[in-house]
Amino acid sequence: MMREWATVVAWQDGIATLHSEIKTSCNGCSARKGCGSAMLNKLGPKDAHVMQIASEKPLQPGQRIELGIRESSLLSSALLVYMTPLVGLFLLSGLFQMLFHSDLAAACGALLGGMGGFIVAKGISSRFGDREAFQPIILNVMLPPDAIRVEQESL
Asked: pTM for this one?
């Protein structure tokens, strides 16, 4: 089970709005200056993920909760997102090459196949995304921020 901590922003009618910071592993590596991933990471959005999840327990803003998602659903989602466009790219590229006997046609087929694969992946993911196996679940709930009191005993 993949785990991630998130902060409750709001809770209303059994739906919690959560805020989760984006974590990267680029800060721990010594090859930051020559790494392409670090450069792409700087270009990307710096804000956090905001999501909504069902919660029967009332939650307070500022409360931290631990979310979990199954590895199998995460891997199948990644497989769908990466492999569908790749398969479309190769199939249409090969088909256009076979039909038109031209490298330009093969390149156009690859472009159309890749774009078609993305569209197919989006359609399939919207169908399967609502299934329970693909939804994150609440594993742990921390105490609300105002519930923790520290009292110091005087000697």
From this structure: 0.66
Residue 73 neighbours by CB distance under 10 Å: 18
**Segment 99-136, tens digit of pLDDT:** 999 999 999 999 999 999 999 999 998 888 778 888 88
Which single residue is written with the structure tokens 């046609």? 105
Domain segments of the chain: what residues? Answer: 3-24+38-146
What count of Cα atoms within 13 Å lies in the side-chain half-sphere of residue 136?
20
Helix and strand totals (H; E) in the chain: 3, 5
Contact assessment for residue 20 and residue 4, using Cβ atoms and an 8 Å cutoff: yes
67 neighbors 6 (Cβ within 8 angstroms): yes
**Torsion angle of C-alpha atoms 81, 87, 88, 94, degrees rounded to 10:** 160
